[in-house]
Design a protein that fits this description.
The chain has 17 helices and no strands. It has helices at 20-31, 36-39, 45-52, 56-72, 74-84, 86-103, 110-138, 144-173, 176-181, 184-207, 222-251, 256-281, 288-307, 313-337, 342-360, 362-374, 378-395. α1 packs antiparallel against α7 (110-138), α6 (86-103) packs antiparallel against α10 (184-207) and α8 packs antiparallel against α12. The longest helix has 30 residues, at 144-173.
Length: 406
């Protein structure tokens, strides 16, 4: 049994860690930008499609591309963190998010729109892969759930804000390009906030080199595959919901601004459950006690969107958001709790993200193609409700005492 502590990788008598409050604040500033490049697109999807003559599948690719980066680049992000240090790599990542989002100012050029999305996706992939490792390395173990909840809260808060404000910003700035690019401002704030923390953590790690450990991903570890499968199913649903909630209601005759607010309600509900779920795990050690209610809430919301979309759309979207927010934030907790060490958490995260996000990245494009094929959004919600049943089945397997990744 490992007896490593959160500071085993970064321990020294001469160079001290930054204050916990400063690390938490900087973590929040970075995390707030990790979904903005994705969530700012759907409320403007119909406008972008009409302006550039793009199909639903191509619009879905604007959501798919960052998620694909989060999957395919996760192993590279893990190696980057080992070579450069996790804190420095996160600094590079948030700068990449800033550059990629800013490049979309020239989004009327297809290359700039998709290149900017890819660059931002690279940054999201690196930061998202390395943050669980940093949480395990520098925060007390009895507070990992709370810290995970905080950065989940910031992540979903950024998504909710960008969903709600994308259309009003497009009106105010005179173009959807300006709206998308304006989200480079919080990315710049995140880069500035993280810089002193990255410098301090880098000095701390350099003063205390860690003995070399295996960099291989835990491909033969059953717990790693269970977490990866759970995250794959959950992420497919989340990113497909993010991509098509607003467009589906625009298709039903809603004003794009109101549809954007509906998507924002989805994000705001995630703020509540995304913070509360991980905090509960600091007290409740059987993960199923929180994973199952989250999945059931999501299923009820999904069935509402499928069966009675016009009766209470705000209720269905909020229930879905509560379920999805808790499900994703709890998955982040699993990446910390099911690892023995920070290095193990990094390897588990890299493998789980590679598998899950690579699969989930096909969600928005596949469901967009399904919408093009059927001419409506009904089939999308049928598929997603079925996947929610799979999520419930996987959640039942998260029993106490599962073998941890070394």
């Amino acid at each position: 049994m490992s007896t490593s502590t959160p500071t085993d990788e970064l321990a020294d008598d001469k160079v001290t860690l930054p204050p916990v409050w400063l690390m938490a604040l900087a973590l929040v500033a970075v995390s707030a930008n990790l979904r903005v490049a994705i969530a700012s697109v759907p409320p403007l999807a119909s406008t972008i499609a009409a302006d550039l003559d793009l199909s639903s599948a191509w619009i879905g690719a604007l959501t798919t591309l960052p998620v694909l980066c989060m999957g395919l680049l996760a192993p590279a992000a893990q190696r980057m963190g080992v070579r450069l240090g996790a804190a420095v790599s996160v600094q590079i990542a948030i700068i990449a998010v800033f550059a990629g989002v800013l490049l979309r100012w020239w989004g009327d050029q297809l290359w700039a729109l998709y290149a900017g999305t890819f660059i931002a996706g690279f940054g999201i992939a690196v930061a998202g892969t390395l943050l669980p490792r940093l949480v395990k390395a520098v925060f007390p173990p009895e507070r990992t759930g709370t810290i995970t909840g905080l950065y989940m809260f910031a992540m979903m808060g950024g998504a909710a804000a960008s969903s709600a404000l994308s259309v009003p910003l497009a009106t105010r700035l005179g173009s959807w390009q300006g709206s998308l690019a304006s989200w480079s401002i919080p990315a710049a704030v995140g880069a500035l906030a993280w810089a002193p923390v990255a410098l301090r953590l880098s000095r701390y790690g350099s003063a205390n080199p860690v003995a070399a450990t295996s960099h291989g991903l835990p491909w033969r570890h059953p717990t790693a595959w269970l977490v990866a499968a759970y995250l794959a199913v959950q992420s497919w649903q989340f990113y497909s919901s993010l991509a098509w909630i607003a467009p589906s209601y625009v298709d039903r005759g809603w004003n794009p601004t109101t549809a954007g607010y509906l998507l924002s309600a989805f994000g705001c509900a995630q703020l509540i459950s995304g913070l509360l779920g991980p905090v509960l795990t600091d007290k409740i050690h059987d993960h199923r006690a929180v994973l199952m209610p989250a999945a059931i809430l999501g299923l009820v919301g999904m069935l509402g969107l499928l069966l009675t979309p016009d009766s209470a759309p705000w209720v269905w979207v909020c229930l879905l958001g509560l379920g999805q927010g808790a499900a994703f934030s709890l998955a982040l907790v699993l990446l910390v709790d099911y690892a023995q060490t920070p290095a193990g958490s990094g390897r588990l995260t890299a493998m789980a993200f590679f598998v899950s996000y690579t699969i989930a990245s096909f969600g928005p494009t596949t469901t967009g193609a399904l919408r093009d094929l059927t001419g409506n959004f009904h089939a999308i919600w049928v598929l997603m409700a079925l996947m929610m049943l799979v999520q419930i089945a996987l959640a039942t397997q998260m029993k106490p005492g599962l073998a941890k990744v070394p």
